[in-house]
Amino acid sequence: MNQLEQLKQYTTVVADTGDFQSIKAYAPQDATTNPSLILKAVQKPEYRPLLEKAIADAPHASTEEIVDNLLIAFGVEILKYVPGRVSTEIDAALSFDTEATVAKGRELIALYEKNGVARERVLIKIASTWEGIRAAEILEKEGIHCNLTLLFSLCQAIACAEAGVKLISPFVGRIYDWYKKSTGTDYQGAEDPGVQSVKRIYQYYRKFGYDTEVMGASFRNTSQILELAGCDLLTISPDLLQKLADSDAPVERKLVADANAAIVDIEKIAVDEKTFRFMLNEDAMGTEKLSEGIRAFVADSIKLKKMIEELKK
């Protein structure tokens, strides 16, 4: 078996792309998208018709409504190629507005259900701000499952688990980027700070019995992926999926829930709003990468809206 096939024995593999052909090629269980991936996809000729149809089908709709319809169109198509779930992201501009995030989550699920997709097959992606986590807590109680993204710190992970969030996406590669830039060290294997962060979150969840799923995300190389073999899920870009498929080197399971979690030396932390904000503030990497990630997703959302407005003319 190649490395991708071996990895699938230990971990649920998720495709991190809006490209249907890539999803079809690598046969993942789930798929994730974000504003940057959707923006990238609609600039390709083969996906342009989805954008044009979203505009043509709602000529009097607002740009925001057309964006929502486009997100759902991508999600519906992706679900034709994966047996599991698709993650659809809420506009990052709502990251600090709990009520608006809840409202948007309900709207997106209603659109999916209108298109014949059960809510169990959808994860609403929300930035892991305090406000975003509170919104996810409300949505989860309504049976709308959430994927808390842009997650860089243990305090974010704990707050998500205590809120009953279905799944979190800790960003391995962006943590690695920050530490590499900060220290000048090109971390490898188990020494990678991004890998260590996910392992710690995974172990914390298992030690204290949380059901929230951990999905490592934002990988820079296959070494980071292989160090997390055994994690609940890993969402992987098409280029790295191909590298795994091209290698026959052995894959060893690195994360084992029962073996690793009970013995790990981690104290339980109660995370209320004050604790959350203080712990995140003390984490320079987490604070910077969360803010940077929100800004980048907002920028790409604005580009997508401008593209739609130009096509509407």
Automatic annotation (TrEMBL):
EC number(s) reported in the record: 2.2.1.2
**The keyword Cytoplasm is annotated on this UniProt entry:** yes
Q: Which InterPro entries match?
A: Aldolase_TIM, TAL/FSA, Transaldolase_1, Transaldolase_AS
Pfam families named in the record = TAL_FSA
Q: What superkingdom does the record give? A: Bacteria
Taking the record's annotation, the residue ranges forming a coiled coil are none
Q: Name one GO molecular function term.
A: transaldolase activity
The record's catalysed reaction(s) read: D-sedoheptulose 7-phosphate + D-glyceraldehyde 3-phosphate = D-erythrose 4-phosphate + beta-D-fructose 6-phosphate
**Which pathway does the record list?**
Carbohydrate degradation; pentose phosphate pathway; D-glyceraldehyde 3-phosphate and beta-D-fructose 6-phosphate from D-ribose 5-phosphate and D-xylulose 5-phosphate (non-oxidative stage): step 2/3
Residues at the active site: 125 (schiff-base intermediate with substrate)
Keywords of the record = Cytoplasm, Pentose shunt, Schiff base, Transferase
Q: Which cellular compartments is it found in?
A: Cytoplasm
User: What enzyme class is recorded for this protein?
Assistant: transferase
Q: Which PANTHER family match?
A: TRANSALDOLASE (PTHR10683:SF18)
Which NCBIfam families does this UniProt record tie to the protein? PRK12346.1, talAB
Which family is this protein grouped under?
Answer: Belongs to the transaldolase family. Type 1 subfamily.
- The name on file for this protein is Transaldolase
The gene for this chain is tal
